[in-house]
Specification:
Low-confidence stretches: none
CATH superfamily: 5'-nuclease
CATH class: Alpha Beta
Largest sheet: 5 strands, parallel
Number of helices: 7
Radius of gyration: 14 Å
CATH topology: Rossmann fold
CATH architecture: 3-Layer(aba) Sandwich
Strand order of the largest sheet: 3-2-1-4-5
Helix content: 55-70%
Number of strands: 5
């Protein structure tokens, strides 16, 4: 399995008071043992900002340190991926769709990833180039 992890999954696992915290940690344990895990620099940008707002600066920095040691593969949004994301963003009008989500869609297609770990519903609505199972 090649799993792309979205912002909301990281956030749920990082904040003990999040109502999805237990489920998020359980899924992380499973995928850690059975998968290659990926995320992007745009997801991390969104995540650190969200953690800072919801849980405070200390929690955001703590997660930065944990991520640095995690072994998760970091995919960087290139100009080509950004252009693909812009086309996706223009085409789809999902409620609360972020441009970061569109970069994630483009990266998942470009790297032929087969799973997404997210609690965000529009990952289920988007039609990827290949079949992609949503965990979460």
């Amino acid at each position: 399995m090649k799993v792309f992890v979205d912002t909301c999954a990281f956030c749920a696992a990082a904040i003990p008071s999040d109502n999805l915290n237990a489920k998020a940690k359980e899924i992380f344990i499973h995928i850690k043992n059975h998968s290659r895990i990926y995320t992007s620099n745009f997801v991390l940008d969104e995540l650190y900002t969200l953690l800072n707002a919801r849980a405070g600066h200390r929690q955001a920095v703590l997660f930065m340190d944990v991520f640095a040691k995690s072994g998760i593969n970091l995919l960087r949004v290139t100009e080509s991926i950004e252009n693909d994301a812009a086309m996706i963003f223009r085409k789809h009008d999902f409620p609360r769709l972020s441009f970061t989500d569109c970069t994630s869609f483009a990266l998942i297609n470009a790297h032929r990833l087969d799973h997404v770990y997210s609690f965000d519903s529009h990952f289920s609505f988007f039609r990827f180039d290949l079949p992609v199972k949503v965990l979460g």
